[in-house]
Design goal:
This protein has 13 helices and seven strands. It is of the alpha/beta class and 299 residues long. It has one domain: Rossmann fold. Strands 2-3-1-4-5 form a five-stranded parallel beta sheet. Strands 6-7 form a two-stranded antiparallel sheet. The longest helix has 18 residues. It is globular and about 60 Å long.
Length: 299
């Protein structure tokens, strides 16, 4: 059976994963599918917007993917969501870290195999980018025999991420805005997920750390490195300038609302937090995330 190559973007939210995926999507042979772990809940069940602007059920791309993957197979989306939630919840991580075991059913793993293979076939691309971020889901995905997973661990300064979590952002295809978090919760999750990700993916050849700050400082260099790491064999570049990418709408499932926008985008670091986040708030986030700041070269 053909192996599906997946570049999995792991880490925490508000770290630039949607932007990175969309930049990679502009490269020949690479398809960014958005946050594929949400395809069952937000796509099949809630019928939210695809990145192309159509509802999931009306998008020709996803209709073909579903037909090709599951025609003749009885797949209950609610059961898949329940199984996935149980496998990837936070309390499962200690077992993953210590034993490396996984109690996923063969049916669930086969469902993932069919889905990702169909995405690759319909898109006609050699690399599928999944920006689901959740490290435990990436760990589950890596257990599927027919999927070759390469993990890009995208990390952002926790103070910048924490500030972004506090900001109000609209969600065009959902009720209300995007989820917001307190400094305490976002910092705690930053610490837990960024500490566990390197341990979950112990094979160094299939794991690479990329800092958001390095990505926006040297976008062409870092993106080329990521493409090489992913095993991309093409010669094309997504850039139309030294720092500029002409983004187009694509068939992404879930993610930052900017996935619905198109046009030229210049990659530059969002430094609003350096002045907008007060000294006491910065001190709190720094104190909570101190154990990992040095590991990722943050002050």
């Amino acid at each position: 059976m053909t192996t599906t190559r997946v570049l999995y973007v792991a880490g925490t939210g508000r770290s630039g994963s949607t932007l990175l995926a969309r930049v990679l999507d502009r490269t020949d042979g690479v398809f960014a599918a958005g946050e594929l772990r949400y395809v069952w809940q937000r796509g099949v069940l809630e019928d939210r917007l695809c990145g192309c602007g159509e509802r999931f059920s009306r998008c020709p791309f996803w209709r073909e993917v579903v037909e090709r993957a599951f025609a003749g197979h009885d797949v209950d989306a609610r059961r898949v969501v329940a199984a996935q939630r149980e496998l990837t919840r936070l309390r499962r991580v200690p077992r993953m870290l210590t034993i490396g075991g996984l109690e996923a059913s063969a049916d669930y793993l086969q469902t993932l195999s069919r889905l990702y293979r169909a995405v690759a076939e319909v898109s006609g691309c050699e690399v599928v980018v999944d920006s689901s971020k959740l490290p435990s889901y990436g760990f589950v995905l890596a257990q599927v025999p027919e999927i070759d997973v390469r993990v890009v661990h995208l990390v952002r300064d926790p103070r910048g991420a924490a500030y972004s979590w506090r900001r109000t952002k609209s969600q065009p295809d959902g009720d209300g805005g995007m989820q917001r978090m307190s400094l305490l919760k976002s910092s705690s999750l930053w610490l837990v997920w960024n500490a566990s990700t390197p341990i979950l993916f112990r094979q160094s050849a299939r794991y690479r750390v990329v800092r958001y700050e390095d990505l926006v400082a040297r976008p062409r260099v870092v993106v080329d490195q990521i493409l090489d790491f992913a095993g991309h064999s093409g010669d094309g570049t997504p850039f139309v300038g030294e720092r500029t990418v002409a983004l187009e709408r694509s068939h992404t499932v879930a993610g930052n609302p900017n996935r619905l926008e198109a046009g030229p985008v210049e990659l530059r670091e969002d430094q609003a937090w350096t002045t907008a986040l007060g000294r006491p708030q910065r001190a709190l986030v720094t104190a909570l995330t101190t154990p990992l700041l040095g590991r990722f070269d943050y002050r």
